[in-house]
Amino acid sequence: MKAKEIMTRDPITSLPQTTIEDLCEMLRKENINGTPVVDEAGRLVGIVSQDDVIFRKGRPYEDVQPPRDIRDLFQRGFASIADSDTGPRHVEDIMTREVISADEETPVEQLCRTMWERRIHRIPITRNGKLSGIVSALDLCKIIAAGKMKFSE
Questions:
Q1: Is 78 exposed, middle or buried (0-12, 13-18, 19+ CB in 10 A)?
Q2: Which of 22, 23, 87, 98 is the least buried, fewest Cβ under 10 Å from its Cβ?
Q3: What is the rounded CA–CA span in Å between residue 123 and residue 100?
Q4: What is the pLDDT of residue 125?
Q5: 66, 55 contact by CB (below 8 A)
Q6: What percent of the chain has pLDDT over 70?
Q7: pLDDT of residue 53
Q8: Is the pLDDT of residue 152 over 60?
Q9: Is the pLDDT of residue 4 over 50?
Q10: What pLDDT score was predicted for residue 51?
Q11: Would you state the CATH architecture of domain 3-145?
Q12: What is the pLDDT of residues 99-141, one digit of tens each?
């Protein structure tokens, strides 16, 4: 089975200049937790997730401790990020630029292995350098649960 057989086609995307506020609204509205970031020509230039919004805020992950609870999160300024004079304002400020992606012909087993080894939840799928779809961990769960894919011991 190949990536193109299970990928979500025409995934929801964001642009580098999308504001973080608009990104958050899109993630909430679409009930997703991340998007590929594409340029005006549809080329994959990054990936962004809700964790990038919550934890990164312009700092490397290793410098940021997860919040103890929701009150701690709001005390750190997440709730007022759009009103802040400092910190990231756009997707390009927090996105991961070195994206792990795969071609449409990539075997699904390889996608699973990559997600497991790299501890990621989604892999953008490309055709001729442009985004054509995305495979998420949920997509993999669906095909395994449906019995469409079995792993050898």
A1: middle
A2: 98
A3: 6
A4: 96
A5: yes
A6: 76
A7: 83
A8: no
A9: yes
A10: 84
A11: Roll (3.10)
A12: 999 999 999 999 999 999 999 999 999 998 899 999 999 888 8
| Dihedral of the alpha carbons of 88, 92, 96, 98, in degrees to the nearest 10 | -140
Instruction: Say which amino acid occupies 124.
Output: P
Among 20, 14, 21, 7, CA closest to 45: 14
Residue type at 108 in one-letter notation: V
Q: Is the dihedral of CA 9, 15, 21, 22 positive or negative?
A: negative
Tokens of 82: 């759009």
- Rounded Cα distance between 60 and 150, Å, is 38
Residue with tokens 């590929």: 36
N-term to C-term CA, the chain: 18
Please, which residues have CB within 8 angstroms of residue 92's CB and are 6 or more apart in sequence?
16, 17, 37, 46
- pLDDT exceeds 50 at position 80: no
| pTM of the entire predicted model | 0.74
Element (H, E) at 44: strand 44-49
Q: Which of 127, 138, 143 is nearest to 32 (CA)?
A: 138
Q: Which helix (H) or strand (E) holds 135?
A: strand 130-136
